[in-house]
Every structure is written in structure tokens, then in C-alpha cells.
Amino acid sequence: MSRQGTGNWSSGSGSGSGGSGSSQLPSTAMSQSGEERLVVAVRVRPSTEPNNNKCIQILSDRALLFDDGSKNRPRKYVYDFVFGESSTQEEVYKTTTAPLVKDVLNGLNAAVFAYGATGAGKTHTMLGPNPKKAGTPSSELPPKTAQSNHGDGMMVKALDEIFQHVENAEDSSKFKVTISYLEIYNELIRDLLNPGGPLELREDNRGQKITVAGLSEITTCSRHEVIQNLLKGNKARTMEPTAANKTSSRSHALLSVTVQNKTPLGTKQGRLFLTDLAGSERAKKTKNRGKRLQEGAHINRSLLALGNCINALSGGARYVNYRDSKLTRLLKEALSGKCKTVMIAHVAPEARHRDETKNTLVYADRANHISTRLQNAG
Ligand code: ADP
Ligand code: MG
């Protein structure tokens, strides 16, 4: 069963206030317990080079050493979680996303976003290594490849767990799962489930409820149908060759999964946002001209706006400006402390990527200070 309509991006819980361009940090965010904070993880993708010229050394499951190539001593960075080159999708899922899925099934909101330069492993983490086979149940795969669905990314594993929960429920008909999937490309919003022209972002006059006019929503009880739609949507993403990566994605992809559960006490609704951000590299690295350069500028505008929000939040600012980009307007609810958020920052270990790796580690370090501040306040 499918229907289309106006994608109600906000779950209605809203965040902060103020239609004036800024929103006040909700007081609940300041008083949340440690559990409610932003979790920051760093994942190092496997090296693709035979030599051992690396700029990263893993110290523990929370710390790594980064060598900037100068005479300075390598610097230690500490995060909530550090996943080394041999980490599995299962491990990353269990640690970062599975706890959020439990919350969503209990009627809370949660968000996961993958950050990092092109080629650092964001799409691998979010979708998986082999999108063609992603989501195929082991029983439907030939025996030799039956292990391959262990490689499914966070989006597929989260949907899997949600549908398993619904199927195992005493009365599955009490559940409704709805997905929408969009991309932001050059500051334009496109529907990935029903690709067409750009869609408008709308906000109610209190700036609380964000909707994407005309965004399709698919309501389904079938795990298979929803995963097929996700993979089809991913194919519709804007992929353009750049010098950094032949199939790099120049767009931010945002998947929203809403779970409604009718209970005797009323309807519980939880929402999970899963975001595969566009590459965070500087425009000059991609050696682009013209159209590609303009894309770079827009991508940086969105990620810069995201960075500014993260900086403001980590500095304890009372007002945070989410209005500078479509990405931050859509992620406002996730960032402002009303929902649990996990950022998985991705880095490449090879020394030749050390500039981008450093930028990502610093970005993630700033994000980590939001979590520290919230934890101290909790
Ligand atoms: P991004 O989305 O950040 O541009 P990709 O996810 O496309 O990067 O990863 C770039 C390449 O590295 C792909 O070929 C991908 O399969 C591989 N890769 C990335 N992360 C991992 C990982 N954790 N394990 C194995 N291969 C990976
Ligand atoms: Mg990608």
C-alpha cells in the first residue's frame, strides 16, 4: 500500500521557538540525562594501499592518534566510539543505531548522520557495500553469498529490525511504518522515491513544523517493498564523477522512517532520520570547474551551516541559527536536543588523505563537545 502527500518532516514535537530566524535552545536539551545526548563516533575505513603509510593509529575503542605529517607529536582524539579498519557493519549498527531503533519503537525520535569526505565510507556505512544485494534475506541468497547481507548498512538494518518487531508483534495491524527519502542537491530538494522537479520546504508561522510540500510517503507493511524502494531511491541520487571519486555523491540523502503504534492509551509515534551527507571535501580538491565547483560551494554551504550549528551548540549558545541551509532546517529537530542523535564521522587512514582526515576529526571533536556539555548538564 502506498500513498503520496505532503511530507511532514517534523514529527510535531517541534524544537525551540522563534520564527525570527533563530530558535532558542530547548531547556530540555540542557537538562537531558547523559543518555539523551549527541553521540559521536569515528569510523576508519580499510586502507586501499599495500604500503603502511597511514596517518591514523587506533588506541582503543574510544581513542585514536592522528599524525599531521609535521614535526609535531601525533595528537590524540577521544570520541564516544572509534571503529577501526576491521570493524563490521554489525558492530557499528549494534553500537550506534540499534539503541535508537529501540527508542523509535517506543515512540521517540532519533537521528543518525554520516559525515566525511568523498571516499571515506559514508555510503558503505549507511547503505552497504553492495546495494544490489542489500536487504536480501539470507534464505533468498545462494549459500556462498548468504553472508553478504551482514554487510547491509544502517538504513537497511534499521528497517529490518523495525519490520521484524512489527512481524513479531501480537497484532501487526496496529503498526504503521511510513518512509520518505529525499536528497538536497545544490540547495534544491528532490524526492528520491518519486523523482521529479524541486520541492518546497514549508514552515508553520512559529517555525516549529517543517514540511516538504509534495514529498511522497510510502506506507507499507512489507519489509521487502520498503527496502526495494530505498535501493531504487538510492539509484536516483545525483552521482557525478569528480577527481576525488568516480561515483561520488554530490547530494545529501535523508531517509525518514516513521513508526506509529496504536495502543490502548493512544497512538505512539517515533521517527528515525538516517542521513548520508555529501562529501565534506573542499571544492579545490575535486579540481572542479563550472557546474561541479558550484555544487562544491553549495555542499560546503550546507555543511558549513551544519558546522556553525554544531559550533554554536557546543559553545552553549542560547540561540542557534538553523536557517542558513535546507540541510540544517531539516535536521533542526535532530540537532536541537529533542531527539537522540548519532554522528558517524568517516575518515580514510592513508597519509595522502591526511588534510581531509584532520578536518573531519576536528569537526567530530567539536560535535563531541555538544555531547560533553549536555552530559555535564544532565
Ligand atoms: P563515500 O560514500 O564516503 O564517498 P563510500 O562508502 O562510497 O564512500 O566508500 C568508498 C569505497 O570504500 C567503496 O568502494 C566502499 O565499498 C569502500 N569502503 C568504505 N568503507 C568501507 C568499509 N568499512 N569496509 C570495506 N570497504 C569500505
Ligand atoms: Mg557516498
TrEMBL record:
Record's compositionally biased regions (Polar residues): 24-33
Subcellular location: Cytoplasm, Cytoskeleton
GO terms of molecular function: ATP binding; microtubule binding; microtubule motor activity
Main location: cytoplasm
Annotated stretches, region: Disordered: 1-34, 128-149
Family: Belongs to the TRAFAC class myosin-kinesin ATPase superfamily. Kinesin family.
Listed name of the protein: Kinesin motor domain-containing protein
UniProt source species: Hermetia illucens
Top-level taxonomy: Eukaryota, Metazoa, Ecdysozoa, Arthropoda, Hexapoda
Full protein segment contained here: 1 to 378 of 732
